[in-house]
Specification:
The protein is mainly α and 87 residues long. It contains five helices and no strands.
C-alpha cells in the first residue's frame, strides 16, 4: 500500500522550522545528504517501526515515509533547510 502523497509544502516548511528551532538544521542537512541513497530503505523501515514510533511522531508518520520515498520531496526539504542556513 503506497504512502499518502507528501506534496504538502506546509509539512516541509513545518519540519524545516522545527529543525531550525531545535538547532538541528546543520546536522539534519548532513544526515539527509549522507543517507540520501538509502532513503527508500529508511522509508520502508519507518513503515515497519510505525506502531512503535507513533507515540513520538503521532499522525505524521506517513508524511515522513512519503518524504523519504520521493526524491523530489527530500530535495525540497534540503533546499528549504539550506536556504535558511545561508541567510
Amino acid at each position: 500500500m503506497p504512502a499518502q502523497e507528501c506534496n504538502d509544502d506546509q509539512f516541509i516548511q513545518h519540519l524545516a522550522k522545527s529543525l531550525r528551532h531545535r538547532g538541528w538544521q546543520t546536522p539534519a542537512v548532513m544526515l539527509l545528504e549522507l543517507f540520501r541513497p538509502f532513503s527508500l530503505i529508511f522509508s520502508q523501515a519507518l513503515l515497519l517501526a510505525e506502531p512503535f514510533l507513533s507515540f513520538l511522531v503521532g499522525d505524521h508518520s506517513r508524511h515522513y515515509v512519503a518524504l523519504l520515498e520521493d526524491e523530489t520531496n527530500l530535495e525540497r526539504l534540503l533546499e528549504t533547510l539550506e536556504a535558511k542556513e545561508n541567510s
